[in-house]
Amino acid sequence: MDLRQAVVGSLVSTTTAAEQAAALFEDHASRRSAKLAEACSICPAVLQTRLSKAHSSAVSAALVVQDTLDEKLVVTASLDKGVAAWRFYTAGSVDGAQGSVDESIEVTRLKVPGAPVFSLAKIPDVKPDGTVAKRVPTGKPSGIYLGTAAKEVLTWMLGSKDVTDKIVLSGHTGWVRSLAVTGKWLFSCGCNFLRLWDTTFRTPKESDSVRLFTGDILAIAASQGQVFTAGADGSLRSWTISRSGELEAGPAVEKAHEGRVVACLVSEGRVYTTSYDGSIKAWSASGLQLLAEVRGAHGGEKVLAAALGVNGVLFTGGDDKMVRAWAPSSLAPLGPPMQAHGASVRVLAAGRRGILVSGDADGDVCIWGVCDPAAAPPAMAPAVDAAVAAPEEVWANGQVNGHAQAPAHLDAIAVPAVEPEPVPAAAVAADALISPALEAVEAAPQDLNGHVNGHVNGHANGHVSEYVNGHAAAAL
Questions:
Q1: For the chain, how long is the longest CA-to-CA vector?
Q2: Which of 196, 225, 292, 296 has the most crowded Cβ, counting Cβ within 10 A?
Q3: pLDDT in tens, 304-339
């Protein structure tokens, strides 16, 4: 064989290996999608990974930073003053005729001055002219903002070892309970003050602020030049953002709920709120008219968190330890309650491709796969037959223009977890793998950068990777 033949042979071998790896990933993803679709006939989201004792105290915030097919990055914060960045990724290898796909988890523990952290938001990619650079739907931002108990907003740039104190947004009068971003604007709140920041500056510059006369602001939602706030006094308020960066008061509902309004979302011309009064409500974004309502949504318990999945479904979490799903237009329940937590569900966060994150009062974190709209279960029928309500009427449990109560026949079930396609010689439930790995991490010493300086089954560098017969078997 001459040199030319050798080079050609090498190229052919390399190409063949690459094709084998691509085929392996495609087959793995196809099998996994089939399992997810099967489970989605029961629930609109399927449990994929449960991180037992991800934190030693209640989870206070969560954010999906990146959501791609082969890599996901989730940041969670807790009342234990800890912040963790969880990386879920897929890696494959081809060795002759044999191939494997390994699904692993890495965790990096961050030190945050002034913790605990109560709110998280992505840093927008703003151009010098003030416009926001378009990022692919699953792309990764340059960093994230963190709202703390020290009445400040800090930043963490992805790839750095710790949260920096170089960019600090101060002046808040209380805990920064919520953050929201729309375009180049960042919103933050502390006590009864709403603050607007222009992120085109290297250190965001405060553009305007509003002081409410009653009630602390507990949640913020912003979209397309509008911002909405939910208050401890049960109120829902709105503002528009002028070109010069001033907040102009819009419609408000003084008693939107009978208790503290703790979650607020805006999407497709609708605003969603949840409250201590146990209800979920949908409002028109333009005038804040009530469009739909569910009372006793979580069995009469407080509804503490909400998130909108990529499939458009509204997910909520509450004191009943459940995650529940609702049709965004009517707030009719979708499928049975999703049971995975042993304590109140305090936070929810959704990605742009298909991931849902929930965190509870015990410090556990669950990762769910959100179903494709075509595969999700249909809206549940009311408990008794009822006339069909007109679009402007409130969906009712058996009564038009009544108040919707979650149907009593929707008993909770344990949602089947979609495990990864078994790799050669191993298929282990994610929880059984992750729990001992996390215990090893928590017991290991930490260096000055906040990284885990211990070994888990022989793998170090601050990562949690559990291997069974040489193959990582963590779900996702």
A1: 86
A2: 292
A3: 999 999 888 999 999 999 999 999 999 999 989 999
